[in-house]
Structure formats: C-alpha cells, structure tokens
Amino acid sequence: MSMKRNIYTTRLRRQLAPRPLWQRPWLWIVGFVVLVLLAVLVYQTPSVNDRAYFHLARIKARIHYFFNPPDKQVFKPSDQNVLSDEAIANLTAMAPTATPMPTETSVPLALIEDTPTPTIVPTNTPVPTPLPKKVLLEGIEPEKQGFNNCGPSNLSMALGFWGWEGDQYVTEKVLKPFRQDRNVMPYEMLSYVHLETELGAIVRYGGNLELVKELVANGFPVVIERGMDDPREGWMGHYGIIAGYDDEKQEVTIPDSYLGWIQMSYEDIEMYWAQFDDIYMVIFPYEREQEVHAILGQQMDDAYNKQYALDQVTARLYTTKGRDLFFAWYSRGSIMVEMQDFWGAAESYDRAFEVYEKLPEEERPWRVTWYQTGPLFAYYYMGRYNDVYNLAKATIDQSPEPAIPESWVWLGRAELKRGNRPQAVWAFRQALKWHPGWWVAENELIALGEPID
Questions:
Q1: Is there a contact between 348 and 98 (Cβ–Cβ < 8 Å)?
Q2: What is the pLDDT of residues 55-100, one digit of tens each?
Q3: Residues 282-341: pLDDT tens digits?
Q4: DSSP state of 129
Q5: Residue 125 to residues 109, 121, 128, 196, 293: CA-CA distances in angstroms?
Q6: How far is 187 from 388, CA to CA, in rounded Å?
Q7: CATH class of the region 109-119+130-316
Q8: Which DSSP string corresponds to 197-257?
Q9: All structural domains of the chain with their residue ranges
C-alpha cells in the first residue's frame, strides 16, 4: 500500500512540477509569431527598410556581376552607314545645320588666333564686385539617401533650403514611384519644382566654378550632376549640392546624400562634373528670379547656352585622353542631341564608343547609359534602329534588376520600327512596371491604341 502511495505521489509531483520550455511547443510557436510581427513592424521603418533592402540588393548585384561582368561588355555601333528615308525626313524637318566634326588637324574654336573677333563693349558696364574668398550657406542639412534615392534626396535638400517642407520620401512619390528605378533625370527634377512647389528653377549646361561661386555667394545653392568612383562599385552618377567654397583651400563643400558633409577639390569637381556635360540646376523663389537672371546673363538664353556648352566640350577633345576623352565625345553628343543635330550627335557617340572599347576594363563607366540616354535619341532619329535596340538591351541586361524605364521605352520604339509591335507593347508595359504612371510610356501605348493597365 505504501509503495502504491509513493508511486502515486511521484506521479502527482511530476504532473504538478513546471515543465521545461522544450516540452511546451505552443510557447515556441507564440514566440516565433511575436518575433515575426516585430520584425515586420521594424522593417516598415523607412530607414531600416532601405538599409535591409540595400544590402540584399548589393548581394544580388554582386552575384549578377560575377556571372555577367558588365565591364567586359562593349557596345559596338553597327548601323553607321544606314540612313533611311524616314531618317532623312526627320533630319530635314527637325535638325539645324549640321555641326562639322572636329578633325585631328582642325583647331578648336577656343584656340583660333588668326583673326581676332571684334569685341562689342556695352555702355555703362557695371564693375563686378569681387566675390568673397570663402562662403558656406546655412540652412541645408544632409539627408541620408534611401536605395537609389540620390535624385529625390538631393532635390528635397535643395528645396528645403528655401523653406519647402518634406523629404526624399515625398519627392520620390513623383520622381520614382518604384524604388528599384535606377535613375532620375534632371528634367524630371526640374518638372517637379515647377509642378509640385511654388518655387522656380532653371537647368543649364556648360557650367563652371566661377559661375557656381557667384551663385553661392549670392545665396543660391547649385545642384549638379557628376560622376563618382566607388572603390567597390566602380563608376556611377551622383547628384550633389554645392553649398560653399573656399578659394584658399581650393575646394567646394557639399552636403552629400551618401557621406554627409564633404569637401571636394576644385580639380576633382571639375573632372567629375564634366562627365555630365557640366549640367546644373538653380532653384529660387520667384521674387528673386531676376537675381538669377542677372548672374547667368547670356546663359539664360537657351540657344546661346547650348552653343556655349558645345564649344566648351569640343575644345576639351584636344586636351584630354583615356576615360576623360570618352566623356568629352559623349558630352558633345549629348549637347548636340539637345540642339537636335542628330547627325553630329550620332557621329560623336560613335567616336565615344570607339574610345570606350580601348579603355582598361576597370576604368569603363558601364553605367553611363543608365543616366544619359542621348545615344538612343541620336541613333533613333538617324534611323539606326538596330543600334537603338542593341544599346537599350545591353543597358537593361547589365543591370541586376531591369529597372531602367528609359531603356525599355527606347527598346519598344526600336521594336516598333523593326516591325515587332507585340514586343514593343510589352517593352512599354515594362517601362510602366518600373515607373508607374510615367507619361512617356503611357503616351506610347495610347498612340498604339493600347489600354494602360
């Protein structure tokens, strides 16, 4: 009897004793669910979300580039001698007198000294006020950019200087609704200022440091697009705001969306800025518009500005080599596209790609067509549809994620000209996938009588 009582007591104690956690699976399930919910909540925080997505995207990109090295791929134009009747009609209707190609024996405009051009001196010319040797504008705080958010973050910083309230997550809703979109064009940023704010803005080419310093000294930060070399990722495009300068140190100050406040030497900023046609944007309140006009002077005239920029970059062809020469030819093509001289632009791009092929692989700026689509314009209006197709496809294939809507649109246009309507429609829809609501792709579908999904 005593033995039975002891057995019963032992069993009772075991039943009443607390069970180890490993014997309570429901606690593990509850804990796991709680952790998942917390992770989801934390992931919704924009900064955490961007950081996590950035690292995942980088891993994916490195795998893609390992199997598809982009610096080994070279685009070779194949349609140089093709000029369709449609292209001739386009050139006749759109283009001004073609700009002569520089030759190895020709002398750049800037170096001609045979016959000096008479100088017309205006009356009552005001004596320019010397600029301060050092200026740093207050009121701009660096905004750490999210994934691929260089354009939206720099635009929000520049707008914030003038009292606009918002951040990159406001500007990106219009500029790049889909996070993976690789780039925002300057014209898109200009359009945002005009349509979404009460401020004014102007974009011009062929800028220089003296002009930037004058604008900054008068209280106007200058947004520029430039190149940059990342030790791990290679060459890429990057926006920046020049908010200060120091003549003694020969450097500009930039609230960088990657690195925070940085200083760049005059020499470096000129080199990297030239890779993007020395393009710049000035934002201003309308009550100060005349101040900007006075500082820019003749550069306010669109035609004058483009010719000035073309002369500037053409002269550079005779003083550069290697990668800088590639960018000089490329920029020359880009300016000529703006001038609708597609013949000259196509020739310049052909020369640029010849230089590109000879560059060491580690120096090749293979991302350039993510940011500057001028060759696609030039080749298209020259009727070189195979080149348009091949270059657009190469640009898309190089990217670990085909989030380049501009290239998809040009791929679609080329497919349409080559008689492949279904493929063209599909390409236009791909553009809208990566940039929802983009009017360029929508207009292509509307022109074909296709619904916009």
A1: no
A2: 576 676 678 777 778 878 899 998 766 666 666 666 555 545 555 5
A3: 999 999 999 999 999 999 999 999 999 999 999 999 999 999 999 999 999 999 999 999
A4: P
A5: 26, 8, 9, 38, 16
A6: 22
A7: alpha beta
A8: SS-EEEEESS--HHHHHHHHHTT--EEEEEEEEETTTEEEEEEEEE-EEETTTTEEEEEET
A9: 109-119+130-316
Which position has the token pair 């140089």? 80
d(C-alpha 316, C-alpha 20), whole Å: 77
Strand, coil or helix: 149 = coil
- The alpha carbon dihedral of 153, 156, 160, 166 has a sign of negative
Tokens of 10: 């032992």
One-letter amino acid for residue 116 of the chain: P
Nearest residue to 235 via CA among 395, 70, 4, 99: 70
Q: Strand, helix or coil at 281?
A: strand
Per DSSP, the residues of 3-66 read HHHHHHHHHHHHHHSPPPGGG-HHHHHHHHHHHHHHHHHHHTSHHHHHHHHHHHHHHHHHHHHH
Q: Would residue 383 be called left, alpha or beta, if left means φ above 0 and alpha means ψ between -120 and 50 degrees?
A: left
